[in-house]
Specification:
The structure is a single chain. The protein has 361 residues and is of the alpha/beta class. Strand 13, helix 6 and strand 14 (259-263) form a beta-alpha-beta unit. The protein has a single domain, classed as TIM Barrel. The protein has helices at 37-45, 75-90, 149-165, 180-185, 200-218, 241-254, 275-281, 294-302, 313-317, 321-327, 353-360, and strands at residues 7-9, 12-14, 18-20, 51-53, 57-58, 70-71, 95-100, 118-119, 128-131, 134-137, 142-143, 170-174, 223-227, 259-263, 286-289, 308-311. The two termini are 31 Å apart. The chain has 11 helices and 16 strands. The longest helix is centred in the middle third of the chain and has 19 residues, at 200-218.
Length: 361
């Protein structure tokens, strides 16, 4: 089956085409936000994936929301991640770190000095922000001054350097789901009139400058980008998403990065899909994600619509997802209540197929 054929991402040979999607599980230390021993176990349990992409990881103290989310902007955090990567590599796995900044979706109560979050423009995200005392509307962010933006690019570069020091095989820039990079990309969130806004080329500049910094550290073969052309939550809109993401795909292709990771549901109406167009523009490894099953992923790869498929919820509950897919075995049902909070339960206690067979005996 195509899903179990070897592949290649950058300089990495993968034993299969199954990707572990980035999954924020809220299990890191507070307030220091470094990965704990249970994270070492969690990622190592899933080392048979063709590639693991880590949970979204904050690049600076100015990007914080709910408790337990990961960060990689301090020496303590970097050292903690090194334990994860060493263990994954010892188990024969491969792992990239996903990096992001929340932008307007950060929680002011958790930011240094309780300052307002920053964004391309002073436009609040729609919806509510979960806090320790309930939910509240997202705040109106402070629009960044033109002179401040290079410092944000530098924050990303420093975090990328920390990812390299922590032993990751590469990084994935989270340019999706309404976070800061996505806020710069979309003209519904970016109303700037300087060189960081207006035209598609200007709005994509923030992402591409960060990509170039990442290439300077990892090489193009160690840089991936995740985008979400259909994401409209939080009031994220764009007047021409096809043109926007086509330009992004062309520029990333020109830079020959390791892969392009596109969130487009397997259930999305075929006539409305953007991924086939992007697939024609980006010639490198192409990852699809969202709502895929073993069979729909196999079809996507066999038909040439993707080179790899990322799985999220299925990986939460099935650390040995590759083996279960190979054997056509039943899958553990996920416990939704433990997805983004808790301790070991719902995190590292899901049984493998082998463990279930032993218990059955």
């Amino acid at each position: 089956m195509a899903l179990f054929e070897p592949g290649r991402i950058g300089k990495i040979d993968t034993p299969n085409r199954i990707i572990m999607a980035p999954l924020g599980r809220g299990r890191n230390a507070e307030p220091s936000r470094e990965a704990q021993e249970r994270a070492v176990i969690y990622y190592t349990q899933r080392a048979s994936a063709g590639l693991i992409i880590s949970e979204a990881t904050h690049i600076s103290a100015s990007s914080v929301s709910r408790p337990g989310t990961a960060a990689v902007h301090s020496p303590v955090q970097t050292s903690a991640w090194r334990k994860v990567t060493d263990a994954v590599h010892a188990a024969g796995g491969r792992i990239f770190q996903q990096l992001f900044h929340l932008g307007r979706k950060a929680d002011p109560d958790r930011l240094p000095g309780r300052l307002l979050p920053v964004a391309p423009s002073a436009i609040a995200a729609e919806g509510e922000l979960p806090t320790s005392v309930g939910t509240k509307p997202f705040p109106v962010p402070r629009a960044l001054d033109t002179a401040e933006i290079p410092a944000l690019v530098e924050d990303f570069r420093l975090a990328i350097a920390n990812s390299h020091a922590a032993g990751f095989d590469g990084i994935e820039l989270h340019a999706a789901n309404g976070f800061l990079i996505d806020q710069f990309l979309r003209d519904g969130a970016n109303k700037r009139h300087d060189t960081w806004g207006g035209s598609i080329q200007n709005r994509a500049r923030f992402l591409l400058e960060i990509v170039d910094r990442a290439i300077g550290i990892f090489g193009a073969e160690g840089v991936g980008v995740r985008i979400s052309p259909h994401f409209t939550s939080d009031g994220m809109t764009d007047s021409s998403p096809l043109a926007l993401f086509s330009y992004v795909a062309e520029e990333l292709n020109r830079r020959n990065i390791a892969y392009l990771h596109v969130i487009e549901s397997a259930l999305h109406p075929e006539a409305e899909r953007i991924s086939p167009h992007l697939r024609g523009l980006f010639k490198g490894p192409f990852i699809l994600a969202a709502d895929f099953t073993r069979d729909s992923a196999e079809a996507a790869i066999a038909e040439g619509r993707a080179d790899f498929v990322a799985f999220g919820r299925l990986y939460i509950a099935n650390p040995d997802l590759v083996e279960r897919f190979k054997l056509g075995a039943s899958l553990n049902p996920p416990d939704v209540s433990t997805f983004s909070n808790g301790g070991d339960a719902g995190y590292i206690d899901y049984p493998t197929l082998a463990q279930q067979l032993v218990l059955a005996d």
